[in-house]
Amino acid sequence: MNVTGPRGRLLASRRAMLGLAGMAAGSSLLPGRPARAGTPRGPITQKDALVAFGHTGPITDGGWSMVHNRGVQAVRQAFPGIRTVYVESVPYSADATRIFRQFVAEGANMVFATSEYGDFIKDVSDRAPDVAFMECDGNSLTPNLGWYYVSHWYASYILGIAAALLSKTGRIGFLGAFPIPSVYASANATLLGARSVNPAITLQGITINAWFDPQAATQAATALVDNGCDFLCGIMDEPAYLRVAVARGVWAAMWNTGMLQFGPESYVSSVVLDFNAFYVAQVRALLEGTWQPSAAFLTLGHGVDRDAWGPGVPEAIARQADDMRARMLAGYNPFRGPIYDNHGRLRVPAGVTLDDSQIYHCDWAVAGVSGLG
Q1: Which of 62, 79, 208, 231 could form a disulfide with 251 if both were Cys (CB 3.0 to 4.6 A apart)?
Q2: PROSITE patterns in the record, alphabetically (predicted)?
């Protein structure tokens, strides 16, 4: 199956930020916090199982969809008798509903949407109660629909520490697709990490209305460097702004996967994602008849982490950033108040720590971030 279409995210903001209650960093919901019990599903043999994936972009994008497709390959390797199908570049329109319905019509026992499709997938799952559905970056928990995401803000915080130590201008440039919670979470975490080292450092963001647009990313990165940013980071599915960093002699940290090969002289590290173990665990539960819908965060060291440090990063800087990583892996959560937004409003009082769910639903920028709202 092959369906093409533009990549984008649903632009509606997530639900308002949840109540302020602390939870330790790195708390993992794998294999997931179950929703109310769904329709009992018995064990399925591999030869009778069909697992379908709907990808938001092409699997050759070098980023998000490529990483998810690695998960498809991991499922095939773990369960060689299973059947899998996938559709690339599923559009954010009624066509998505038709694609998910087609998966069901073809006999899929489990359907993964590798990005947020909201009502486009929920309408289908509501009408197919015997099929297991999981939506990446979603919000719905029903008897047969769950969601999963990566708590990438911890890795971004670590890279922010490195940014503050490497930057000479005290200005970080950030590229995002849209002003949505996942972008806010990444930018906020990067700056909070940087300000733990240099309280005066700032972050200027630019959104380009696409996750994969090398030309627009190049133009935005060039504008950021022209404005004095000497460290670039963001959430893009390709390495365009790393190439700008090389051409302009500044630093860059990437997203989705390691991209050292595209600019080793400017490469700092990357937020790297790995859905392989999660997909294998979900499919195993399906085959064993134990699957239940869940809300799952893949946490630092378990689905998301930083890449190896680039060759130009001084050892002392890498060590200082990794000291925080070690603390996080031991349970420390740096997202604690007081935290103000970029309009001066106190958002997180002193003594309060944000948990993953609260960060995940954040739709505001912290003090020192500009250009994102």
Answers
A1: 231
A2: TAT
Cα torsion 236, 9, 90, 71: sign: positive
How far is 51 from 148, CA to CA, in rounded Å? 17
Residue linked to tokens 């996080």: 328
At 41-70, the pLDDT tens digits run 689 999 999 999 999 889 988 889 999 999
Superfamily of domain 153-272+305-370 in the CATH hierarchy: Response regulator (3.40.50.2300)
Contact 197, 303 (CB under 8 A): no
Residue 282 above 60 pLDDT? yes
Q: What is the per-residue pLDDT across 329-368, written as a single tens digit (0 to 9) for each?
A: 999 999 999 999 999 999 999 999 999 999 999 999 999 9
Q: Which fold has domain 33-151+274-303?
A: Rossmann fold (3.40.50)
**How close are the terminal C-alpha atoms of the chain, in Å?**
39
Average pLDDT, the chain: 89
In which residue ranges of the chain is CATH 3.40.50.2300 found?
A: 33-151+274-303, 153-272+305-370
Q: Is the pTM of this model over 0.85?
A: yes
Q: Is the peptide bond before 43 cis (omega within 30 degrees of 0)?
A: no
